[in-house]
Specification:
Elements lengths: L7 E5 L4 H12 L3 E6 L2 H6 L8 E4 L5 H7 L5 E4 L4 H15 L2 E4 L4 H18 L2 E3 L7 H11 L5 E10 L6 H9 L5 E4 L2 E4 L6 E6 L4 E7 L4 H8 L2 E9 H8 L18 E10 L2 E10 L1 H18 L7 E2 L2 H4 L2 H6 L5 E6 L3
Parallel strand pairs: 1-2, 1-4, 2-3, 4-5, 5-6, 6-15, 7-12
Antiparallel strand pairs: 7-13, 8-9, 8-12, 10-11, 11-12, 13-14, 14-16
Helix pairs in contact: 1-10, 4-5, 6-8
């Protein structure tokens, strides 16, 4: 592993909406970000250098530039979607350089491919490859892991996501247009294609949402959970109000509601784990799914750089290498969590 500067983190896609939040969060935590971008003019105009933040240009079709961008860093956070384009070349560069790799992909095919392709090489190199360390993906995995507790298996895991609105970034729109692969869930203990038409049900979400018509719409959390949680069934739902927003081409992008740059969007994520007629639940709520991704992934970066994880390397899910409950609780006040287990 490259330990020349063990508190230095490269952020790919640093000029993007999520990338800027990540750079700011790294600074807040006392880590040293290096802003990496594919557009030299945008990178120069972003004001990083004026604040003493190092910058590097790199392109995913230029392997030498990727290797150079990862020199003298210990970890890389990839915010540069679509991840179907960026994950493989950047994860490969990270393995070559002995640099831990994290991304914020919500894409199921890419998340699965990253784990399968780089798990062995990462383990051999003694480094970690953690895809989908964002709102979609890692958050659901950690909530389900916390709810599972000491159970070694479950009959069913159900994840429900409710947003009061979804104003997508341009990157989200581009990814959605290109990511046409069939989605998967877990049926009878195995990954299986999502049944069509997708199931619509009404879920009772915690305050402030209440009863919400929802549709089965799994993201990368399914791929992560399949790596380490044993369950016969796994289904993931999104409220229809949020889905209507993102499907409407006239819905504008996220708008800052305060000086932090966060939007006013509110979210709740609920993971319910059931076994033998008994249910356990973990619930998280917060504001702005894009802004929240920054403290979420930076908590992983900080723990990895401090050596606070289980195992010696490889690719997989956060619930398998971090203590799920302490990880979630460490995200306060950005994330409010409750854990409900039977007496």
């Amino acid at each position: 592993m490259n330990t020349a500067k063990n508190n230095t983190v490269a952020v790919f896609g640093a000029t993007g909406h999520t990338g800027r939040f990540v750079v700011e969060e790294l600074l807040r935590r006392g880590l040293v970000p290096v802003a990496v971008g594919r557009d030299g003019e945008k990178l120069a105009a972003a004001g990083f250098r004026e604040r003493g933040i190092g910058t590097k240009w790199a392109s995913f079709d230029n392997l030498a530039s990727l290797d150079t961008a990862l020199e003298d860093v210990a970890l890389v956070i990839n915010c540069a979607g679509p991840f179907m384009d960026s994950a493989a070349p950047l994860a490969a560069a990270a393995v070559r350089g002995g640099v831990h790799y994290l991304d914020v992909s919500a894409e199921q095919p890419n998340t699965r491919a990253t784990i399968e392709q780089f798990g062995g090489p990462a383990r051999d190199a003694g480094m970690l490859v953690l895809p989908a360390m964002g709102f979609y993906g890692g958050l659901g995995d950690l909530l389900a892991t916390a709810a599972m507790g000491d159970w070694d298996s479950a009959d069913e895991i159900r994840v429900g996501i409710a947003l009061d609105s979804w104003h997508p970034t341009q990157g989200t729109r581009i990814t959605g247009a290109r990511n046409t692969a069939p989605r998967v869930v877990i049926v009878d203990g195995q990954l299986a294609p999502l049944a069509q038409p997708a199931q619509e049900i009404t879920l009772e979400y915690p305050h402030p949402f209440g009863a919400q018509p929802s549709v089965e719409l799994p993201f990368s959390e399914v791929i992560l959970m399949a790596q380490h949680l044993r369950t016969r069934q796994l289904h993931s739902y999104l409220n229809l109000a949020a889905l209507r927003d993102i499907r409407d081409p006239s819905t504008p992008g996220p708008a800052a509601a305060d000086a932090s740059g966060k939007s006013s969007q509110v979210f709740v994520v609920e993971a319910v784990v059931s076994k033998d007629g008994v249910s356990r639940k973990a619930v998280a709520s917060g504001r702005d799914i894009y802004a929240f991704t920054a403290p979420f992934i930076c908590e992983a970066a900080a723990r990895i750089l401090r050596g606070e994880f289980t195992g010696s390397g490889g690719a997989g899910a956060p619930g398998a290498i971090f203590d799920a409950r302490s990880y979630l609780e460490a995200l306060a006040p950005e994330l409010a969590c409750t854990f409900e287990t039977p007496a």
